[in-house]
Amino acid sequence: MAEPAFKDVPLRREIEDLAKQQDHHTLACWATESAARVLPIFEAYQLEDLRARDAINAGRGWIRGEITMVDARKAAFAAHAAAREADNIAASAASRAAGHAAATAHVKGHAVHAATYAVKAIFYDCLMEEQERRVLEERTWQYQYLLGGNTGHGERTR
Predict the structure, then answer these.
(1) SS3 (DSSP) at 27
(2) Which residues of the chain have a pLDDT value below 70?
(3) Rounded distance, CA 51 to CA 42, Å?
(4) Per-residue model confidence (pLDDT) at position 158
(5) In this prediction, what percent of the chain has a pLDDT beyond 90?
(6) Which of 106, 111, 135, 141 is positioned for an S-S bond with 31, CB 3.0–4.6 A?
(7) What sections of 7-130 are H helices per DSSP?
């Protein structure tokens, strides 16, 4: 059976507009936290694959000034390879979120893609009747984070 087509919420446009107003550091933090919230989805399907986690850690390391942009980019490429190899669409999206989060060190425009892939991971990981609500909840969290009301570094609850 084919997967349902991803359906985003109108709040996406407001998030993209707000993201354009943010500095590189803020976007890197936002992208990394967005990806970290869906990391459990990837890890539930790809039990021993650390590439998505490594990409998130690389993004955080770049934010703290502990690693170079080049090293963060390498971790991003590895997470994207993990996404291509994943057998589950939700796991693939979660790993792409991690890859884009790490790639934000290179180009801040990747942050919006990290957030969108995080929402896609949630969409594909939940029951059809929950998809619209869960996507709206995650997009609302993303919007609030960019407004400065971020909820910290907590993991998403499943």
Answers:
(1) helix
(2) 1, 149-158
(3) 10
(4) 31
(5) 90
(6) 111
(7) 11-19, 24-45, 51-63, 69-85, 89-103, 110-125
For residue 71, what are the CA distances in angstroms to 25, 95, 103, 110, 116? 17, 17, 10, 16, 23
Would you state the structure tokens that stand for residue 78, as one six-digit string?
Answer: 């590895």
One-letter amino acid of 64: R
Q: Which residue has the tokens 């942050």?
A: 111
Tokens matching residue 123: 């969409």
Q: Give the tens place of pLDDT for each residue, 140-156.
A: 999 999 999 554 444 33
Can you give the pLDDT at residue 153? 43
Which helix H or strand E contains 64, and what residues bound it?
none
Written as six digits, the tokens of 145 are: 């984070």
- Position of tokens 């934010």? 63
